[in-house]
Amino acid sequence: MKSAVIVFPGSNCDRDIQVALRDITGVEPTMVWHGDSDFEKVDLIALPGGFSYGDYLRSGAMAPTSPVMKEVVKRAKDGVATLGICNGFQVLTEAGLLPGALMRNAGLKFICKDVKLRVDNSTSIFTNQYEQGEVINIPVAHHDGNYFCDEDTLETLECNSRIAFRYCDETGDASHEANINGSLNNIAGILNSKGNVLGLMPHPERLIDPVQGGTDGRKMFESILGALTNA
Amino acid sequence: MKARIHITLKEGVLDPQGKAIQLALGDLGFGGVDDVRQGKYIEVDLAETDASKAKDALDDMCKKLLSNTVIENYTIDLDE
User: Fold this and answer.
1) C-alpha–C-alpha distance, residues A138 and A117, integer Å
2) A182, B71: Cβ pair inside 8 Å?
3) What is the pLDDT of residues A150-161, one digit of tens each?
């Protein structure tokens, strides 16, 4: 399985996801600079976390104007698996590949800690190695992770099982108290209608090796590897 | 031709920064501040001299980059 990691000025989790993809897929990912308008054919495109273009204007707002994103949008619309983590999720919404927007955290603070997530869709190419309803431990590190969309969009997401992950407590309850950033319906990650694009605020690539304190993020990359290798 | 663009959060969209400013104003002794909403102000200088064409271009700029229409409204004032 071949993958590409898109690197913007200000990306800072590109190396983390590079290591995760190299370790789990066994193939060195291609690192693609934002100014490149084309790159080799890959099975997975990853948009990393960080602060692309310094978060100028809005988090993720400038990235869609870069040459590489025009190609990413085209390929994602053609069905290529595309994963956006943290700032990558913000970029996906700003590029129109996922609905809604990520606003300033309701508590106004930058949140950097491990949180519990409930897997609410365990059939996608990104999540098939998790159990439905499984509670996992994944780190978050963001200032703008407060997911918002209009009521119709929220209903569409809910009715079509497009909410992949929700913030929850240790028992899996997506309670108000467990909602770290004010996201609608505790949304931590969503899929597009075709299921080939996933955006999430938490960082699974930061928990793939016991030395990092856990391996709950590993199954996401194993899911992708299984789904795209057998495709 | 100069344009002044105001970008504000839509009604119903929570504005935690505005809320924090409101509370801070209260702490400073400014009573009776019922609500604060924070937004952005952007000035754009255009080479275009036709006001109608300029407005169309600015409208497009706001939709494509300057605002996020999922959560924000914008108004355009043109100095003609």
Assistant:
1) 7
2) no
3) 999 999 999 999
**Would you tell me which CATH number, out of the four given (3.40.50.880, 2.40.440.10, 1.20.1250.20, 3.90.79.10), belongs to the domain A3-230?**
3.40.50.880
Contact A57 B16 (CB under 8 A): no
CA distance A15 to A47: 11
The Cα A177–Cα A179 span in angstroms is 5
Measure CB to CB from residue A61 to each of B16, B20, B65 and give the nearest one.
Answer: B65
Q: Which residues of B touch A (CB under 8 A)?
A: 13-14, 16-17, 20, 65-66, 68, 70-71
Question: Would you state the CATH architecture of domain B2-79?
Answer: 2-Layer Sandwich (3.30)
Question: By the 8 A CB rule, do B69 and B59 touch?
Answer: no
pLDDT of residue B80: 74
* Percent of chain B's residues with pLDDT above 70: 100
Mean pLDDT of A128-135: 98
Please determine, for residue A68, whether its predicted confidence score (pLDDT) is greater than 90.
yes
